[in-house]
Design a protein that fits this description.
ten-stranded antiparallel sheet, single chain, Helix-turn-helix domain-containing protein, transcription, 2 domains, WH-like_DNA-bd_sf, Jelly Rolls, five-stranded antiparallel sheet, 323 residues, mainly beta, transcription regulation, HTH_MetalResp_TranReg, Arc Repressor Mutant, subunit A
Amino acid sequence: MIPSPGELPNGLGRLLSIDMDSAEAEHDFEEILKALASDKRLEILRYLGGHIASVNEIADKLDMPPSTATMHINLLEKAGLIRTELKPASRGLKKLCIRVYDQIAITLPTGERSTENTVDISMPIGAYVDANVSPTCGLASETAIIGHLDDPATFYDPDRVHAQLLWFRHGYIEYRFPNRIPANAIPESIQISMEIGSEAPLHNDDWPSDVTMWINDIEIGTWTSPGDFGGERGALTPEWWEEWNSQYGLLKVWKVGDSGSYVDGVRISDVTLAQLRLEQARFISVRLGVLEDAQNVGGINIFGRAFGNYPQDIHLRIRYRTP
């Protein structure tokens, strides 16, 4: 948990050690390099070296628009260099930021080839193959509403492939990723990341929703979204989309490995990689939804690369090793 805003206690920072030959590296080296390749992001890291601060406080202190600060903070968080947490505020929730590391040490490659590899596939949010949704529901492209609002038939409109935001109250949406694991390779984990949030009327920061994921028809677990965020324009959200609508979500990472299933490192079930039988499938099915009888039926918003705060679609990564 992030402590109350203010000065950081001594000794909170840690050393991040990256061995580029390691097959078990926890951080994406390329993402870290991208995050550090910006004077503005370095300013944010420098400021967070002595403070825990909200996004607006960072924007004010460093004299940048809140939307610009949000974009930089999201990239730093994606790289694992800062951590954020939503805290109650006088109006809704605010995002507090803390710097995770004080030092970064990099061990360059020795020339030995790693036996670990990855398969990476990016799926546009409109490229689903099946949908069974209930109103409120709808689709929006980067420039306009697609089809008709609150009409489930719109989810079969040919223009759905251009969707950059989709939402529904309960039901599911299903994607199929090509299985590109090489023959005889041994999968070690599967990871799926996306920007996601609840679906409230207009928006509501306190609107919990139980979002469930299935992979290859196996239910891997449920994560509770805290709310549907709006009132402040998302860093990527188009100008034509009104601010009183949903604006952005949270970047969530679902992961299944040999020891179980996790969201952002928090265990959600005992389902393991072996149960998904990735090696036997021609494609990998990923279904995301809200059950009609869930404890919190708060709907779902899924954001594409041109909406919200994160410039990405639904991203699947499989780590595997060769024999």
